[in-house]
Amino acid sequence: MVLSFPCPTSPLSFTLTLSTSELVWAVAGVCVIFDENRMTQRFFVGHDGEVSCLAVHPDGLLCASGQIGRSNAKVCIWSGGSYSSLEKRRRRRRGRSSEEGGGPRGGGERGDRSSEFEYPRYAPEVCPSLQLPIGSGVAALDFSPDGDFLLTIAMNMHHTMTMWDWRRRHPLCSVKTHSAPVYMCHFNPYQFHVEEETRERVYTAVTAGQHHVKVWTLR
User: Fold this and answer.
1) Going edge to edge, which strands form the sheet with 23-27?
2) pLDDT value, residue 107
3) Domain 16-81+123-218 classification at class level
4) Mean pLDDT, contiguous 10-residue spans, the chain (219 residues)
5) Are 202 and 194 in contact (CB under 8 A)?
6) Helices and strands of the chain, counted as H and E runs
7) What is the pLDDT, as a whole number, of residue 100?
8) Contact 112, 94 (CB under 8 A)
9) Contact present, 24 and 33 (Cβ < 8 Å)
């Protein structure tokens, strides 16, 4: 049997990996989570435009996805790790039924179908979406090494970079990056520290695009 999946062919093509070893990618306005061990898929369907970028939280379970939209450039933050919790609950129930001397009703085949029915088909959104005040879409995004902040690049004339406190949905600072297209932004996980005197957190990030690469210090 051969499985085929439609994937974007633009310079923004991406496939990421969760801590559950599942693969994540986007097709049009849908984010797909694929588990090759169980040959199953889950979906995040909270977008109303084409998904343009993806990022995975340092915990390996949360995901952020940005979209293209003329008047609705937004970022959705959602959980890709709901299968693990359901699997643990299912195993606990099976353990209790074994201790009571029972088993899956109707035999093993019916029990297998029941576990498939419990498999979460849609990934849940964990907080309201972030609305970019400018731009027609989100060109790139990334989580900080500690997972507390989110960096976004807007699809506007100056490709404005914004640092967010994503849990509070609050933009902390913004800066113009470049007039040429910007394809990626990424925090440096090895250059992050807290200043002793001010207790201020200092991050290093890089943006790259058409004929340019820039390194930024964010505090």
Assistant:
1) 16-17, 23-27, 30-35, 40-44
2) 43
3) mainly beta
4) 46 76 91 89 91 93 89 87 54 58 46 48 86 85 94 91 93 91 91 80 91 89
5) yes
6) 2, 15
7) 56
8) no
9) yes
- Say how many Å lie between the first and final Cα of the chain, rounded: 51
Single-letter residue type at 93:
R
Report pLDDT for 38: 85
Task: Report the candidate in 199, 208, 182, 7 with the shortest Cα–Cα distance to residue 219.
Answer: 199
Q: For residues 152 and 203, give the distance between their C-alpha atoms in angstroms, rounded to a whole number.
A: 15
Q: Answer yes or no: are the C-beta atoms of 64 and 44 closer than 8 Å.
A: no
Question: What local confidence, expressed as pLDDT, does residue 111 receive?
Answer: 43
**What pLDDT sits at residue 105?**
45
Residues 19, 140, 56: CA angle, nearest 5 degrees: 10
Report the C-alpha gap between 200 and 211 in whole angstroms. 33
Domain boundaries, given as residue ranges, for the chain: 16-81+123-218, 86-118
Say how far apart CA 160 and CA 6 lie, in whole Å: 31
Residues 6+ apart with CB under 8 A from 124: 78, 79, 82
DSSP, collapsed to helix, strand or coil, labels residue 127 as strand
Task: Report the amino acid identity of residue 67.
Answer: Q
